[in-house]
Design a protein that fits this description.
heterodimer, A: 896 residues, alpha+beta, 8-stranded mixed beta sheet, 6-stranded mixed β-barrel, 25 strands, elongated, B: 244 residues, alpha/beta, 6-stranded mixed beta sheet, 4-stranded antiparallel beta sheet, 7 helices
Chain lengths: 896, 244
């Protein structure tokens, strides 16, 4: 131990003696270690850390998933079955975090976000309100008492942190709710957004179980101690299958009515609905209802297909649906579900991390490469420095130091250096983790970041210490072994140059430079692919014109506008008033404007509209239904391709009409004109009156989906988005538009106010984030590699000064010397590029999921990036080459 | 003068002053000298007298502070770097005390190097390298690296490298300084042999025994020529029995 401290002390002294070397090495290492620690901090938060709930590792997210429809929600019937029959969960809760309400009676009316939760929500998560209590089972009934638990922020903002708030009421959608609890400030809701308050879900478990009337829910379970996720999956999947296939059910059990998926039940607010329709051979005449207790086997069922949601939360009554006073729609229950439904049981933390998890793990790999480059750089510096200490090592050996002793001494110095880099790296990381967290788009990581904010904690500090020590060993080992290697006697005789002249030293330095270049190339190609991908996404036509379009959401409540005519009147009034505003060119309404989540997804059987076997492909056609006002296409700049768009005459009394987008038209009637054809949907036989251009609804980097537009005058909705195209800056119209809406109904809030350009820009955020991070790390890698090759050649020139002198004495011109040095750099670069390309071919496929319209092996990117790296490397080689060409041969020859 | 051939090197009042900080060091002071083609001249004198500086100026590795220098009747004292390199390559062959072979190049490549800089085609280079190595008795070691050769062998390779370009003059700076007496004698015998076949040789040495190999010895002291005289005979010089 004493000798270790002696070595460390000596190491510190040596580093202090060479401040230039120390500074360059520490900064290089700090960049590498800092980047690693910063990314690790995020990985630690989103991947490694437990959720901030008691035994959070036992919480699982349970969902049914239909990839074809991007549906990821579960029916209340399955929840009830799982709740009653499971053997692997200690607790289970269902919730819907997408509720929103008009809050009145507390200042300016506001649209607020809430969540409906079952009474088991609190016990499942293991949390307790700070004031009051959670919900009782009685309150969590369909017609239970109207109660609410406030989130801490709501309590502060709207109740002034009143400690006597319990028992008082808050008015939501004109209905008073009694406050029974207040959650602590530390509580975070397990979702992408933080609701302001919690309400009882009030599931009708009997109806849900019988699939007569179902809600779509999100489910969290708490595993019993010691139960693995896989066993819970098997348990829940078995229950689900028995419910779908009554023949599998236990004898005597009144199996569930169908294996179809649940229909959404409505609520106020936003959300997307997926439904399925269709009959076998003839248009549907209405909904098919299951008879409770009389399970219908698949052959008996009318051919109505399945429905589900994309990401929604709230369920809207579909066109023609019977809406109950409570806002729940009567839905068919005997749907023959499309194939491919899967159940997912994953740790809640993994679910919440979502897409951020693979992205951050990829970035962790990326910064690992950056650290390796930094290590190679510092290894080279250390090697160069060790070469000047050949005589010192020889003297130590002559005095009896063994080889391991010498290696240890040099390694101690490296570790001291790396720890210095680690300390500075931590400072960089402390800033970097903030920057990275700030850059993470909310659409990617909000779920987990709401619960676990990345920061430098003890785990991160230990990681920094570990990575610093490992780094010190990594970059210090080769130089240490080389310096303490054989031939010490010769070094003692020949002096400091001996090591530098050793062929192994030159080989090692060259190998380090090649490694740096190849690693940098891998990162740069990755960055190049993402940049190209980003550019492609930026330049793709979204199918609509977002310029100068202002959008906002208006959600009417059934309590205030119980009749469809009232809703239509309100929205028509809004359109009239807004269009009359100076600066507004045109205005329109739609239930899901581009870039907002789809609300209604549905699926039809192809034979409903075509003769069986006439068109190839799947028998079911998924599509999205959009409810729009007549000026929608004009306002959003969506081109009309065939027929006509809607007019004010397409109202409730007029024949039911629809407009298809080009994708759906081609899918249903390939090569034919769809205008004038009929499409049976819901209870109506819609006449296709036009075809419009495709819209990349989910963003320019996403695919085109099949869309069917119906006129809002025929399909009145509670919640619509207002879009207006302005002749002036759209932001300047916000207050005027709000004023007009307030003039119609002072208690009607508007929400989600943004220009489409802003929304479009935000839709690029995930792609921008990935690209930016990789570009930053690629740039660091390029800079380090350039410094690396410069260092190798500069050192080589220093070591070869005498040789260059000889060459000049023999008649070498300056250009010969330039060629000599640049040629050396070029050879190393070529080797680096060759190995880098091989590495990139192997590794860039990991980026596949992040790319858009670019292959992971895109040749132009590979070539362009290789040329850039070669150019930078040659430039870095030119500097020492130029110095070499200026060597005075007399001085060089004397140097020996 | 010992040789009546045309004048190859003519120096008139060559002066070389080194400036170090504020100190002026006069390495050469008004040196007048002529060397004719085919001559074998040794430059002798104590350490620091300016021998190597004079040789460097002759070899165009350095330029005089003042004075004139004509090589092959061409004034070369004010030439640019590029022209000086070209002349060094074609007219001068250097033999250094420490051999100055390039460690990363093998024997063949070391000898070939001056021809490479001359832009000579490869077949011709190969032929001349082979001939040159045969002249010094090293053609059997073409693939060896300098570190695999003895000092005497390295110097013979260095001589071959100096000869390969068929320069007008061979400049040898203490060519035996790093060799034992046996190898030193062998190198001197080689130089004498080259002289006999027509080479012009200028050799710096501080060893009177080796100076006797030359036809003429120029003695320097404090940067000036203090004595110049022809050797009586080179026959008395020891002959080499062979080199290690």
């Amino acid at each position: 131990m004493t000798t270790l401290f002696q070595d460390l002390r000596f190491g510190l002294r040596m580093l202090a003696k060479n401040p230039g070397f120390t500074a360059v090495a520490v900064i290089t290492l700090a960049l590498g270690i800092g980047a690693n620690v910063a990314i690790f901090s995020v990985v630690n938060a989103v991947v490694l850390k437990q959720l901030p709930y008691p035994h959070g590792d036992r919480l699982v997210w349970i969902a049914e998933f239909l990839p074809a429809l991007k549906s990821n929600m579960t029916g209340g019937g399955d929840y009830v079955d799982w709740k009653e029959q499971n053997k692997t969960l200690a607790q289970i809760t269902a919730y819907d975090e997408s509720r929103s309400f008009n809050l009145t009676g507390r200042g300016t009316p506001a649209r607020i976000h809430g969540a409906a939760v079952t009474s088991s929500f609190f016990s499942t998560l293991g949390v307790e309100p700070q004031l009051g209590r959670g919900f009782t089972a009685k309150e969590d009934q369909p017609n239970g008492r109207k109660v609410a638990v406030l989130m801490h922020a709501f309590w502060q903002q709207y109740c002034g942190s009143d400690p006597h708030v319990l028992g008082r009421t808050v008015t939501l959608d004109a209905v008073p709710y009694a406050v029974v609890g207040v959650m602590p400030a530390s509580f975070r809701f397990p979702g992408d957004s933080q609701p302001k308050l919690l309400l009882p879900f009030g599931l009708d478990e009997v109806s849900e179980r019988l699939r007569i009337r179902q809600h779509l829910v999100r489910i969290i379970g708490r595993l019993k101690p010691g139960v693995p996720v896989a066993r819970a999956f098997a348990d829940l999947d078995g229950i689900r299958k028995r419910a779908r296939f009554p023949s599998l059910a236990a004898p005597g059990r009144a199996g569930s009515p169908a294996f179809g998926q649940p229909q959404p039940a409505p609520a106020s607010g936003s959300g997307s609905v997926m439904q399925m329709f269709g009959t076998r051979g003839h248009p549907p005449t209405g909904r098919v209802h299951a008879v409770p207790g009389s399970p219908i086997s698949p052959p008996q069922r009318a051919g109505i297909s399945a429905q589900t949601f994309q990401s929604p939360q709230r369920v809207l009554p579909s066109h023609g649906a019977k809406t109950s006073p409570g806002g729940q729609a009567q839905h068919p229950s005997t749907f023959e579900g499309p194939p491919g439904w899967e159940i997912k049981v994953v740790p809640l933390a993994e679910h919440l991390a979502g897409n951020l998890r693979p992205v951050m793990l990829t970035m962790f790999g990326v910064v690992g490469l950056v650290l390796l480059i930094a290590c190679a750089n510092v290894a080279h510096l250390t090697l160069a420095r060790a070469s000047t200490r050949g005589r010192e090592m020889a003297v130590r050996a002559a005095l009896g130091a063994g080889r391991w002793r010498l290696v240890r001494q040099l390694l101690s110095e490296s570790i001291v250096l790396a720890l210095g880099g680690g300390v500075v790296g931590l400072l960089i990381a402390a800033w970097g983790v903030e920057a990275v967290t700030h850059l993470i788009p909310s659409s990617v990581g909000a779920g987990i970041l709401n619960l676990a904010r990345p920061h430098v904690d003890v785990t991160v500090l230990l990681f920094a210490l570990g990575v610093s020590v490992l780094t010190g060993i990594l970059f210090g080992l080769a130089p240490a072994v080389a310096a303490a290697g054989p031939g010490l006697a010769e070094r003692l005789k020949d002096g400091p140059q001996a090591l530098s002249h050793s062929p192994s030293g030159g080989w090692l330095r060259g190998a380090l430079a090649v490694a740096e270049l190849s690693l940098a190339l891998v990162l740069l190609i990755g960055a190049g692919l993402l940049i190209k991908s980003f550019y492609r996404a930026l330049t793709v036509d979204p199918g609509f014109a977002p310029e100068r379009v202002l959008a906002m959401k208006i959600s009417l409540t059934d309590a205030r506008y119980p009749k469809p005519e009232q809703k239509l009147e309100f929205f028509s009034d809004v359109l009239r008033r807004v269009e009359s505003l100076p600066g507004v060119r045109t205005a329109a309404l739609g239930d899901s404007l581009p870039l907002s989540p789809y609300r209604v997804r549905l699926m039809i059987r192809r034979e409903m509209v075509t003769r069986p076997g006439k068109t190839p492909g799947s028998n079911t056609v998924p599509m999205v239904r959009l409810t729009v006002s007549p000026a929608y296409f004009y306002t959003l700049g969506i081109p009309l391709l065939k027929g006509r768009t809607f007019t004010d005459h397409d109202d409730e009394q007029a024949p039911k009409v629809a407009v298809l987008n080009d994708a759906l038209a081609r899918r249903l009637w390939p090569g034919e004109d769809p205008v004038g054809r009929r499409l049976p949907l819901f209870a109506d036989n819609l006449k296709i009156v036009g075809v419009v251009g495709n819209v990349r609804h989910n963003g320019p980097g996403e695919g085109v989906e099949s869309e069917i537009y119906v006129p809002y005058l025929q399909v009145p909705e509670n919640s619509m988005q207002l879009a207006l195209r302005a002749a002036v800056s759209p932001a300047s119209l916000i207050s005027a538009v709000r004023g007009q809406i307030s003039a119609i109904d002072p208690e009607q809030p508007v929400s989600n106010v943004a220009t489409l350009e802003q929304t479009l820009s935000e839709s690029f955020a995930p792609r921008r984030f990935n690209t930016l991070l990789l570009a930053i790390f690629g740039a660091i890698a390029l800079a380090l590699a350039a410094v690396g090759i410069y260092g190798v050649l500069a050192f080589s020139v220093t070591q070869r000064t005498h040789e260059i002198g000889i060459r000049m004495a023999l008649g070498a011109q300056r250009s010969d010397v330039l060629k000599l040095v640049v040629g050396q750099g070029f050879r190393l670069t070529l080797m680096g590029v060759a190995t880098g390309i091989a590495g990139a071919l192997a590794l860039t496929r990991l980026l596949s999921s992040l790319l858009y319209a670019v292959k992971p092996t895109d040749p132009p990117t590979f070539i362009a990036v290789s040329l850039v790296l070669t150019a930078v490397a040659l430039l870095a080689s030119y500097i020492p080459a130029r110095r070499a060409a200026k060597i005075d041969p007399m001085v060089a020859l004397r140097q020996e | 003068m010992a040789n009546n051939g045309p004048c190859l090197i003519r120096m008139e009042g060559v002066t070389k002053v080194f400036f170090t900080d504020e100190v002026e060091t006069h390495a050469l002071s008004g040196v007048h000298m002529e060397i004719h083609k085919g001559e074998y001249v040794s430059i002798a004198g104590p350490s620091g007298c300016g021998k190597s500086t004079l040789l460097s100026i002759m070899g165009l590795l350095d330029s005089p502070t003042d004075g004139k220098y004509l090589l092959n009747e061409t004034a070369v004292e004010d030439l640019g770097l590029s022209d000086r390199a070209r002349i060094r390559n074609r007219e001068v062959g250097f033999i250094f005390q420490s051999f100055n072979l390039i460690g990363d190049l093998n024997v063949y490549e070391n000898v070939e190097l001056p021809l490479t800089y001359r832009g000579m085609p490869s077949p011709e280079r190969k032929q001349r390298v082979q001939q040159s190595l045969e002249r010094v008795g090293m053609s059997h070691r073409v693939k060896h690296y300098p570190s695999q050769l003895s000092g005497g062998q390295q110097q013979r390779v260095a001589v071959a490298r100096a000869l390969v370009g068929e320069p007008a003059v061979l400049l040898a700076d203490e060519p035996t300084g790093n060799l034992d007496s046996k190898n030193g004698d062998a190198v001197m015998d080689l130089l004498r042999e080259l002289h006999r076949t027509g080479s012009t040789i200028v050799m710096v040495t501080h060893d009177a025994r080796f100076a006797r190999y030359a036809q003429r010895t120029v003695n320097l002291f404090d940067g000036r020529i203090v004595d110049e005289g022809e050797e009586q005979s080179t026959a008395g010089a020891p002959s080499a029995a062979g080199m290690a």
